[in-house]
Design brief:
1455 residues, alpha+beta, 6-stranded antiparallel sheet, 4-stranded antiparallel sheet
């Protein structure tokens, strides 16, 4: 521990910096920082391919740019959307619409603090970027500002300007000049308080490029120029701009004889300094007059000496920001406006901001103008083309969640923003990522509000400019050489970008070591933002950063050990190191410093056992992903021991097979792997550590051979070993390493030979006398015959056709035959696998193997042995695979078929018959095979439908199917029927004759004819005679009488008379009644049902108490319900007399048992019968008049003698029905009257509604209607609000001739709808003439030309009494025409009103509903009994799927 550095000293050496050092760095390194801003340009050019370029929208060249006068004369409209004022300046098609969409909440409420959460705030990125800015108080300057205020009454600071010197203006008119050296000494004090009393406070300052001149602007409008070398006053200018206005801005241009000033009147002036005959003069020229729009911010383009030859500098560009727009003008060679850009809607209190900077885009360095007002920053790239013209390209804009009061470029990629709550935001321009946020409220920033309000001259400014001035701090912030100076009421602060090393050290100082490493790595990879201090090529930069990261890693490791909790649970220590140690490992590997990781870092962390364990565990993912190779032997040993101690043996195995273990103790590792059953690792160690490929197989064979030879079942562990053994042998024979990788190419032949020689050994090394020959092959065949043979097959594929390979193949084949054929302990499946393997090898074109053919005959006898019925399907499948693999050439086909038939190997028979195209015999194979008999239908269908088979083959198949038709039908009736209907529909009668069994015939016909059985056959294509259907119905009556009616409803092709005879034969009365009803004999059907009902009633009347009461009563009820349904279905088509002939006999039949109640033998169910009778009465009441029913009951002798109590319920029901129908009639009449009144009122209101034009100019020529002088011209107004001259409409061909009358269409509406139809809403008002429309009216007095109230007059024109009366006459004339004419012609106005009503209803009117109901109920004329007639010719409203009955009042329209 003596060599361990002191923690506190290390931190101080890394991080400590005094305030004096920071200030010294701020000033003494000014030149280098200035250079950095241009180095950054070069770096941006180098890295342009690594960054995503900004999305650009080019502004095309303008042939004749607008003059300054034309811009000044334009009216500023704060309500206009955010688009360029002159459309010719921008190609609208190439603009991203989102770039200009700032008239939403994002800008309209930008000054409202409550709306700052309207956008998602950028996440705090301190941990990602560290502290980007370094801010320091200039103590010397701050102290002297306070001292000057006390000692010489200099007043408070008001403005600052920075170049090689720092100039601070005061409220009493003094300009204090300070040096930028370490002492910050006061160099000059320009002016005096007496002059300050006359001129007021200094409101603006500017220093020229060579720091030789200072311009001071004053609150009362004066301007002075000073020599900064001598401190002499060179010029005092009082007449450069209108008196009584404060100087808001004064700026030197790159030309030292040219300056720009901006006063509180919003005007901008150009100041030209000359010296004639030793006399200094100043000429002033107004560039922008505040009377047309007040400018509150100006910014000339300054170029550094490095860019003085840039072609854009010759124009001396000046950007100006008024309250509504941005202007870019060129002062040289002559005054010219290059661009105007409006803001759009935004908070009027937000401050316009402008800032220039040279940036690199597309390999060229050009100036970029950033302008903003509110919370959106726009970037415009200015370029000069070869012709000398300037192009402006809009870049990706920046949306913020705060309002800005200052915008400053710190370099070409980084900008610093100050929001309205005095918080700095450092933003990367290209990615728009916020790098840091700094609170600067401690600065107590000076605001220029008093100068914008011009308080020194009496406050004679506009309210808009005064409102902007509330947040103005233009003169309090100045940037120069990568530094930003902020002027406070008693201090001056400087801010600048930290160097990359400072940013890392700042994080270290705050004990954020992980963040410091992450930041340093971003510098290393070139992904950091706002980088300062890294120069040179990429490799050099990476080396510098890497050295610094190594220092931090050592410090990090020491800190991890020191901060470790000494007491507590071991889990707490583990968690501590799990948080710390992976960081060290990650960065050492990222830096490719394995030497550092496995030497110094490992030694340091090994001092703590917990840290050492965590360190070793951190290596695991890198080893498994092969990202970490070349570990030291000590680390590898410790790694294996650590996981072994923690019982993580699976992890140990995974690690070993990814490590270079040549430097470890091989025997010890092998022993560990074998003891812990790490077979993969053991094989890997043998192969890689000792180049030994046979020993692993020997060890595994020793384990699995004894139980297999003894016939015992293997354990799960032994099965795993056997599978690994097979895979290992496969890898060795294929030249691949196990478990991953490849065997070195020079070892591949040797390994293959060794493995083959091992497998075909006659005896094992330690063989017992009882061991059978070829133990290894025998063991593998017993373990998994199929997989072992697959391994050999793959190996044979890889063998080259040389002599040694051929010998090896023949030898292994001979051994396989000797082992398997001469032993009976192999199953048929195993033997079949062998011969399938042999057949595949023999079938190859380049086969060199020889196998005795008699062996195949022996195998055939073995598989087809009829004495052995076990494993029948297995033996058949094995033989089939053997034949499919090419083994068929080894057999005599006739003998093979005989043996297969004898063994019932039907799949083998099918295989052979298919080779000989004997497809008909295959049908027998399917039918005899119980496992596949149902597949015969698909087979027959495929043969008959798939092309490629001859007609003779198809005929033989069909004939065979016919021979077995009964068998097919009994097997699957549906499939058999579908087969017949699909292929031989014309031979159905022949099939029927072949089916002698009536049950099979019934099943076949049912499947064929009943569509509910689900066969997919078109019934019309069958073309069967009706006799077949009737035969089916007769069979149905025999075998399933309950399904007859449902089947008849689904069937179509049958004759009614013959079918009726069949049902009568089998006494199916319900079916007979159904058929009679279908025939049209309603009365006959009713009589049958009535007779059946009467018999049921008679049964229930005479049954004794012991009978099944419930069952009999249920039969009566079911029969009665069916009879009622019959009457109800047909009563609609019958007259009153025919209805009574149905219903009254039914009523009498139900009442007859009740008349016997007074007899000696009363029936058992009086209440039930009375309930059923009431059900009949309620049902017939819908079709028979209630008085007729009552009269019929009273005429009955029983009830006519005073037994009226039983029909009391009927009479009361009649009265209730009467009351209900009366109420329904009254309600319906009221609703209809209300609907009619509402419809007529709305129609009249629509016809008489006045039209109000949207504008007072023609929508085509864009001229006001009063400017046209043609007397014959007319004004046409449409109900959509568009107004036109008739002459313009005629030129656009907006007239349509219909029925000899001219109708107009609205040009805009018809063109937008892309149709040329007659405008539904065109209503014309003619000036001086009567409009040729249906609503005939003319103005009482046409307006005179030039009348300014014409627009109002047109609106009033529609509201005269004459108009209303004329429309009333037209309306009632129209209603009379509707009543008189069968096809009324509606005016467009009336059509519009009617369509509006239809849209409001969204459905049929209640009048239409009731009309159709009355038509259905009104046909009571006498009609004889006849069949059911077809429905009405028209489509019923009630049949519409969208029909909904809504009895609600109609909606109220809004005028």
């Amino acid at each position: 521990m003596e060599n361990e550095p002191d923690h506190e000293n290390v931190e101080q050496s890394l991080c400590a910096k005094t305030t004096e050092e920071e200030l010294n760095k701020s000033f003494n390194l000014e030149a280098s920082l200035s250079k950095f801003s241009y180095i950054d340009l070069d770096k941006e050019l180098e890295c342009k391919n690594d960054l995503i370029d900004d999305k650009e929208f080019d502004i095309p060249q303008v042939d004749t740019p607008p003059t300054l006068e034309s811009i000044l004369n334009e009216t500023d409209d704060e309500e206009e959307s955010f688009v360029l004022e002159d459309p010719t300046l921008l190609n609208i098609d190439t603009i991203d619409s989102h770039s200009y969409d700032t008239s939403s909440v994002a800008s309209s409420d930008s000054g409202d603090r409550t709306n700052l959460k309207r956008k998602k705030k950028l996440p705090d990125s301190f941990s990602l970027h560290g502290s980007v800015m370094r801010h320091s108080l200039l103590k010397g300057i701050s102290a002297q500002i306070v001292s000057a205020a006390d000692k010489v009454d200099a007043g408070l600071p008001t403005a600052i300007a920075v170049s090689s010197l720092i100039a601070v203006g005061t409220s009493h008119g003094l300009a204090l000049i300070f040096g930028k050296d370490q002492n910050q000494a006061l160099r000059l004090c320009l002016g005096n308080t007496s002059v300050g009393g006359q001129y007021g406070a200094i409101s603006a300052l500017s220093i020229n490029n060579d720091c030789s001149r200072l311009l001071c602007g004053f609150a009362k409008g004066q301007i002075t120029m000073w020599d900064l070398a001598s401190g002499k006053l060179l010029r005092s200018i009082t007449d450069a701009h209108p008196p009584g206005t404060a100087i808001l801005h004064i700026k030197f241009t790159d030309d030292p004889t040219l300056a720009i000033c901006n006063d509180s009147g919003g005007s901008v002036f150009e100041l030209t300094f000359k010296r004639v005959m030793g006399v200094r003069t100043c000429e002033s020229r107004c560039l922008f007059s505040g009377s047309k729009g007040e400018v509150c911010c100006i910014e000339p383009l300054h170029s550094k000496p490095e860019l003085k030859d840039h072609p854009i500098t010759q124009f001396s560009l000046l950007a100006m920001a008024s309250l509504t727009k941005i202007l870019v003008i060129g002062l040289k060679p002559s005054l010219k406006v290059w661009m105007t850009f409006p803001y759009g809607r935004m908070d009027p209190s937000s401050v316009p901001l402008l800032a220039w900077h040279f940036v690199a885009v597309h390999n060229y360095v050009n100036p970029m103008l950033a302008f903003c007002r509110g919370d959106v920053v726009h970037f415009l790239l200015v370029k000069r083309d070869e012709s000398g013209a300037i192009h402006v390209t809009k870049q990706k804009h920046l949306h913020l969640y705060y309002d800005l009061i200052n915008f400053t470029w710190i370099n070409s990629r980084t900008v610093v923003l100050l929001d309205s709550v005095e918080k700095l935001h450092v933003i990367d321009r290209q990615t728009q990522e916020e790098l840091e946020t700094v609170e600067i409220s401690e600065v107590q920033l000076v605001y220029n509000s008093s100068h914008f309000k011009s308080l020194a001259t009496g406050g004679n400014v506009s309210q808009a400019l005064a409102l902007v001035g509330e947040k103005a701090c233009y003169q309090s912030i100045s940037s120069y050489g990568g530094q930003i100076f902020y002027l406070g009421t008693k201090s001056v602060y400087v801010m600048m970008l930290r160097s990359w090393r400072e940013r890392v050290d700042h994080l270290l100082k705050q004990d954020c070591l992980t963040e410091a490493l992450a930041l340093a790595w971003s510098f290393h990879e070139g992904k950091a933002k706002a980088v300062v201090g890294l120069s040179g090529d990429a490799s050099k930069r990476k080396a510098v950063v890497a050295d610094r990261m190594v220092e931090i890693l050592f410090h990090y490791a020491d800190r991890a050990l020191k901060k470790c909790p000494d007491q507590g649970k071991i889990q707490v220590m583990e968690q501590h190191f799990q948080d710390m140690v992976p960081v060290i490992v990650d960065y050492c590997l990222l830096l490719e410093r394995k030497d550092l990781l496995f030497s110094q870092m490992y030694d340091k962390l090994s001092e703590n056992s917990v840290a050492k364990g965590v360190f070793l565990e951190c290596l695991e993912p890198y080893i498994l992903s092969d990202k970490l190779v070349g570990m030291t032997p000590q680390v590898m040993k410790d790694l294996i021991v650590h996981f072994q101690d923690k019982k993580l043996m699976e992890n140990v195995e995974a690690l070993i097979v990814h490590m270079d273990i040549t430097s470890l103790d091989i025997q010890q590792v092998v022993l560990m792997c074998w003891e812990n059953r790490l077979y993969d690792a053991m094989i890997y160690v043998y192969n890689r550590g000792m180049n030994e490929f046979i020993s692993p197989m020997e060890k595994l064979f020793r384990v699995i051979s004894p139980p297999l030879n003894a016939g015992r079942t293997l354990t799960d562990e032994q099965v795993v070993m056997g599978n690994k053994l097979l895979v290992y042998i496969s890898c060795c024979l294929a030249g691949r390493a196990y478990p991953l990788g490849d065997i070195p190419e020079d070892l591949v032949p040797l390994v293959k030979n060794q493995v083959f020689e091992f497998l075909i050994r006659l005896h094992s090394a330690e063989a017992s006398p009882e061991e059978e020959i070829y133990p290894y092959v025998r063991t593998l065949l017993h373990f998994d015959t199929r997989e072992f043979l697959n391994v050999l097959a793959l190996t044979f594929e890889d063998f080259k056709n040389d002599k040694q390979a051929v010998e090896y193949q023949q030898r292994i084949v001979d051994i396989l035959l000797k082992v398997m054929v001469e032993n009976s302990d192999f199953t048929p499946s195993q033997v079949g696998c062998l011969f399938t393997f042999l057949a595949r090898q023999l079938a190859k074109p380049d086969n060199t193997l020889f196998v005795n053919r008699t062996l195949f005959d022996q195998v055939l006898e073995f598989l087809c042995s009829p004495d052995d019925d076990s494993r029948h399907s297995e033996r058949q499948q094995v033989l089939l695979e053997l034949l499919q693999a090419g083994g068929i050439v080894q057999f005599e086909e006739s003998r093979l078929i005989r043996m297969a038939e004898k063994a019932e190997f039907y799949q083998i028979c099918e295989f052979m018959y298919e080779r000989e195209h004997q497809y008909d015999k295959i049908i027998d194979c399917y039918l005899r095979d119980p496992l596949r008999e149902e597949e015969v239908f698909n087979y027959i269908h495929n043969i008959l439908s798939i092309p490629g088979h001859s007609a003779e083959e198809k005929q033989s198949v069909w004939q065979k199917a016919m021979d077995h038709i009964e068998e097919l039908v009994s097997l699957k009736p549906c499939k058999a029927a579908e087969l017949v209907a699909t292929h031989f529909s014309e031979q159905i009668e022949i099939v029927i004759k072949k089916l002698q069994d009536q049950v099979l015939l019934f099943k076949f016909l049912r499947s064929l004819l009943d569509p509910r059985e689900g066969i997919h056959v078109n019934q019309e294509s069958l073309q069967m005679p009706p006799s077949v259907t009737e035969q089916f119905i007769e069979l149905l009556c025999q075998f399933d009488p309950n399904q007859v009616i449902e089947t008849l409803q689904a069937l179509e092709c049958y004759r009614l008379e013959e079918t009726i005879q069949i049902t009568q034969k089998y006494q199916l009365h319900e079916v007979t009644a159904y058929l009679l009803e279908k025939k049209g004999d309603i009365h006959g059907a009713f009589l049958i049902m009535l007779k059946r009902l009467q018999s049921k009633l008679q049964e229930i009347t005479h049954q004794d108490e012991k009978a099944k009461e419930d069952l009999s009563l249920k039969d009566v009820e079911d029969t009665m319900v069916e009879t009622i349904a019959l009457c109800q279905r047909n009563s609609h088509n019958l007259n009153q007399q025919q209805r009574e002939a149905l219903w009254f006999p039914l009523l009498e039949a139900m009442m007859a048992p009740q008349k016997l109640s007074g007899s000696a033998a009363p029936h058992l169910h009086p209440e039930a019968l009375r309930s059923l009778t009431m059900q009949v009465l309620n049902s017939m009441a819908a079709f028979i008049a209630l008085p007729s029913i009552l009269q019929r009951i009273l005429q009955d002798p029983v009830y006519g003698k005073g037994k009226l109590g039983e029909i009391q319920g009927l009479i009361l029901g009649m009265l209730d029905t009467f009351n209900y129908e009366q109420t329904l009639l009254e309600t319906t009449t009221s609703l209809l009257n209300q609907d009619l009144h509402w419809s007529l009122c709305n129609l009249r209101a629509s016809v008489t509604r006045g039209l109000n034009p949207k504008q007072d100019y023609c929508s085509i020529c864009l001229q006001q209607y009063k400017r046209r002088q043609e007397m014959a011209d007319e004004i046409i107004v449409f109900s959509c609000g568009h107004l036109y001259h008739s002459f313009c409409l005629q030129n656009k061909e907006c007239t349509i001739e219909t029925e000899g009358r001219t109708r107009w269409t609205c040009y805009k509406c018809s063109s937008s709808n892309k149709v040329g139809k007659l405008s539904e809403n065109s209503s014309e008002i003619k000036k001086g003439k009567t409009a040729p429309s249906q609503v005939k009216m003319s103005p009482p007095c046409p307006p005179s030309k030039g009348d300014p109230a014409v627009k109002k007059g047109l609106s009033d024109l529609f509201q005269t009494d004459a108009k209303i009366k004329a429309n009333e006459r037209n309306f009632w004339n129209w209603t009379a025409q509707i009543q008189a004419a069968s096809e009324p012609v509606l005016d467009p106005q009336q059509i519009q009103a009617f369509d509006q009503l239809c849209r409001l209803y969204r459905g049929s009117s209640r009048l239409a509903l009731l009309t159709e109901l009355s038509q259905n109920r009104s046909s009571d004329s006498y009609r004889p009994f006849s069949g059911s007639q077809s429905g009405p010719a028209f489509n019923s409203i009630f049949q519409n799927e969208n029909f909904q009955l809504q009895l609600i009042p109609p909606p109220v329209t809004e005028d």
